[in-house]
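Tutorial, part two.
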Amino acid sequence: MNEKNYKVLVVDDEDYIRESIEIILRTEGFEVFSVNSGFKALEVLQKNNIDVVLTDIKMPEMDGVTLLRKIKENYPVEVILITGFPSLDTAVESVKFGAYDYITKPFKVDDLINKLLKAIENKKLKREVVELNQIISIYDSSKYFANILHVDEVFNKMDDIIKINLKDNGYFVRIFTREYFKSVNLDETTKRYIFDNFNYKECLTIFSNLEYLESCLKLNGKDVNLLLLPMTSREGLWGVVGVFRDGSNTFSDIDCKVHSIYVDQFSLALLNVYSFEDLSKGYLETITALSKAVDAKDHYTMGHSENVKKYSLMIVEEMGLGDEFKETMVYAGFLHDIGKIGVPTEIIIKPDRLNDKEYEEMKKHPIYGKDILSPIEFLGDVPYYVLYHHEKLDGSGYPYGLVADEIPLGAKILHVADSYDAMTTDRSYRQRRKPELAFEELDRCTGTQFDKDIVAAFKSAMKKF
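Running the prediction step on this input gives:
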C-alpha cells in the first residue's frame, strides 16, 4: 500500500458482508470506517475526509442510490456500489448519477481492491484538475453527456471539447465493436497510418500496460504528436480515441490526464446511447407484437395499428415536426389501442353495433392503455397520447371530455389517423367508405372533432402518397 492510508467508508446493513469487506480492506492497508445505514454514513462523512464510499444498493431506510445522490450533492467523494444481479440495472443507471463504478456480489478480492485504487486515483486526478481550473468544464460536460440519448449529440459534444477546450488539431474515433471510424481534420496518409497501426489487436497489446500512449510521429514530412486513449467497458477495450497536435505543441502529463477524463466520459455516454438504441429496438419488437395481439382479437382490425402509425408519421412529416416527436409517434401509433387488451373479447368482436353498456366498457380502453404503458419511462408522453386519442375539440370525446388546447398534439394526430383508418376499412357492422368520402367526413368534423391544421396536413400528405 502507499505511504498514505486511504480512507474507505463501507455501508451495508448485512453484518457479515460489511465485516468481511472491512477485514479485507484493513489487511490491504486501508483505513476503514464501517456503518450499517445511509444515515450513519452521512454522519461519518461530515466528520472525516473519506476517499471512497463502498455502499450496498439494497438497504432499509435509505437505499444506496439515495445515499449516492446525497453524497454527490455535498462531498467530493468517489462512490462504488455493491449490487446483486437483480439490482444490476439500477447500478448501471446510477453511474449516470455520479457513481464511479459498481461491483457485483459475489466479488473477487482483487476486483474490489483494483476498483478502489482506481477510484482513489480518479479522485486524485480530479483534485489535480481542480488545481488547473479544468474541473468546471469537465463537470459541465459530464452533466451534458449524462442526459444525451442520441449518437450525433455525443459526437458533436466531443467535437466541441476537442476543438475548443483541448485545442487539438485533429482527432479520430475508432470503435471496434461496431466497425465504426470517424476522423476530423486528418489527411489520407494519417488515416492509413491509423488503420495500419491501431487495429483491435495492436491496441489491446498497447493498453495492457499503458493508460494512454503518447508518441511523436513524422507524417507527410511534419512532426506530429499523437495521444491515443482507450475506450473501455466492463467487457474490456471496445474503442480508441486519438488526438493530434502539431510538433511544437506537445502533450503535458496534465494534458494526458485531462484528455483521459474526457474520453472516459465520452466512452460512457456512447455506451449508454448504444444501450439505449439496442433497448429501443427491443421495445419496438415487443410493441409490434403487442399491437398485433390487440389487432388479432378482431380480424376486421388486423393491421389497424400499423395503419395508424403510418398515417400519424405522414402527418408528422408533413407538419415538419422534429425527429424526436416522430419517434414518439411511432410508438403512439403502434400502441394507441393497447388498452383493448382489457376489454372483453365478446365486445370487441361483436358483429353488431354496441349497446350503451358495451360502449361504456369500450370507452375505458384509453384508460387501460395509459395504465399499461405508464410504468415504461422510455415511452415518454406516449401513455398520455394513448389516453386522450378519443378526445374531441368540442369536449364531446372520451374519457374526460377535454377541449381544444387541453388535448396534446400527439393525441390529436392519433385521432385523425385512427378515425380515417376506421372509416376506410371494413367493420363487422358496416362496410368501408371510399377515401374521398372519409376525407369529406374529416372536413365536416374539422373544428369540432378534428384539428384543422392536422387534417390539412394529412390531406396534403395523402395526395403525395
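Residues 135-273 form a domain with the Beta-Lactamase fold (CATH 3.30.450.40). In part three we will examine how such features are distributed along the chain.
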